[in-house]
């Protein structure tokens, strides 16, 4: 009898465990399904948002191109179309850069690369950025500050990106005739650190308390004007928060709807003991023409449209362009010509047959007196520090990120063509 009861108890326990395990597994499966659905919804919302943000400027580009082609006899109207195309293109580049930054942040690959950076230069760059931005909306910009003669040890690109995003947001959400202010407050130096509060304020539309709680989350935007969202993918402030966190700082927001917003960033930055690198000398259009006229440049590029654009940029300043469709063809052309035939080489990186890294190394090994000294300038769609490092290791002199800015290309060519051998 006792044995039968024991067996019954064991069977009941086993059934109970089986049922418990079944319920637990079903609950876990339900949680996994719910998580998958949530991820799918986030992906769908993300793709919908990005699709919208891409299509809007693309519509401008397509429409303005069509209009421009019909205005060939009206230069002013054509210029207006070209300006619209440029504005839409710049927006797309900004969106692409934000997406790349956000991907790096989420994958733990977003890093800072500090170097000496003049505080005076930083303020000048802010002023140069804000002047045209505010003029377009008749916004008054104030930047009261005392002279601060220090060099900071920061990543200049990321440090400036913080305030570019904050100030451009302030302008975007401030109505015509409004005010935007940028103040540097409570600054002091101690223990080789420059400590300061950077305050961006405006008298624009402001934000609700609910939105302030999620302000720095990716892809968030508060509805404006009857449920419509503002322009942008909602990544800028999330990137700002990540940069501030990496720098060991803090960021706080105060805002009221229809009254305006104030965002304060507190940073403690190491003071640099060495001077910032001297920037490439900025030459006038006349100087550029005089230096580059008649120079022979070997353009190594496999994409026909990129070849056409680069050729026109160079021919605009009277450069003679000889093109090669890949690294292998460039190497053969360099070998075939007399020494010093080419004055410089512009080298794409990703090419079939032979990429830019291999081609640059091979050119440096050619038994010609100019092989070691001819300027080789990389043209690359990848502008990471790793890519720049690889270019240097391959024997290239400089690196220019695509899309190529004509003035930057001219200035760098001038710098290396005038450099002492």
Alpha plus pi helix count? 12
Average pLDDT, rounded to a whole number, is: 86
- Give the ordered list of helices and strands: HHEHEEHEEHHEEHEHEHEHEHEH
For this structure, what is the CATH homologous superfamily of the largest domain?
Histidine kinase-like ATPase, C-terminal domain
- Per CATH, the architecture of the largest domain is 2-Layer Sandwich
Highest-level CATH class of the largest domain: Alpha Beta
Architecture overview:
- There is one protein chain.
- The protein has a five-stranded mixed β-sheet, with helices on one face.
- 50% of the residues lie in helices and 18% in strands.
- The mean pLDDT is 86.
- The chain is globular, with a radius of gyration of 29 Å.
- The protein has twelve helices and twelve strands.
- It has 421 residues and is of the alpha/beta class.
Concise overview:
The protein contains twelve helices and twelve strands. With 421 residues, the chain is of the alpha/beta class. The chain is globular, with a radius of gyration of 29 Å.
Provide keyphrases for this structure.
421 residues, alpha/beta, Helix Hairpins, Heat Shock Protein 90, Rossmann fold, 3 domains, 5-stranded mixed β-sheet, 5-stranded parallel β-sheet, 12 helices, globular
């Amino acid at each position: 009898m006792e044995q039968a009861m024991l067996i019954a108890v064991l069977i009941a326990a086993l059934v109970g465990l089986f049922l418990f395990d079944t319920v637990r597994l079903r609950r876990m499966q339900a949680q996994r399904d719910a998580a998958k659905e949530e991820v799918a919804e986030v992906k769908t919302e993300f793709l919908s948002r990005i699709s919208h943000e891409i299509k809007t400027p693309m519509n401008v580009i397509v429409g303005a191109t069509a209009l421009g082609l019909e205005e060939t006899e009206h230069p002013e109207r054509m210029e207006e179309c070209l300006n619209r195309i440029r504005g839409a293109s710049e927006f797309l580049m900004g969106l692409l850069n934000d997406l790349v930054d956000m991907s790096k942040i989420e994958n733990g690959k977003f890093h800072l690369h500090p170097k000496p950076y003049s505080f005076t230069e930083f303020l000048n760059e802010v002023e140069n950025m804000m002047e045209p931005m505010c003029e377009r909306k008749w916004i008054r910009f104030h930047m009261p500050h005392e002279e601060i003669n220090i060099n900071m040890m920061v990543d200049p690109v990321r440090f400036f990106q913080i305030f570019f995003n904050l100030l451009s947001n302030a302008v975007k959400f401030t109505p015509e005739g409004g005010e935007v202010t940028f103040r540097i407050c409570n600054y002091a130096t101690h223990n080789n650190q420059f400590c300061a509060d950077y305050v961006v304020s405006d008298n624009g539309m402001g934000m609700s308390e609910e939105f302030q709680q999620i302000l720095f989350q990716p892809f968030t935007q508060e509805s404006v004007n009857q449920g419509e969202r503002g322009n942008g993918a909602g990544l800028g402030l999330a990137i700002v928060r990540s940069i501030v966190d990496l720098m060991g700082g803090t960021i706080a927001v105060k805002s009221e709807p229809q009254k305006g917003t104030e965002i304060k960033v507190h940073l403690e930055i190491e003071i640099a003991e060495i001077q910032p690198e001297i920037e490439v000398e900025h030459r006038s259009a006349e100087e550029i023409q005089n230096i580059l006229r008649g120079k022979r440049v070997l353009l190594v590029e496999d994409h026909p449209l990129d070849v056409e654009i680069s050729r026109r940029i160079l021919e605009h300043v009277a450069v003679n362009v000889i093109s090669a469709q890949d690294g292998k063809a460039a190497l053969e052309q360099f070998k075939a010509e007399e020494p010093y035939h080419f004055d410089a080489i512009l080298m794409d990186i990703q090419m079939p047959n032979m990429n830019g890294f291999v081609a640059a190394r091979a050119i440096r090994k050619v038994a010609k007196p100019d092989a070691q000294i001819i300027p080789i300038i990389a043209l690359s769609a990848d502008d990471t520090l790793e890519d720049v490092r690889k270019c240097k290791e391959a024997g290239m002199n400089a690196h220019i990120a695509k899309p190529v800015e004509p003035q930057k290309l001219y200035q760098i060519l001038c710098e290396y063509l005038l450099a002492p051998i």
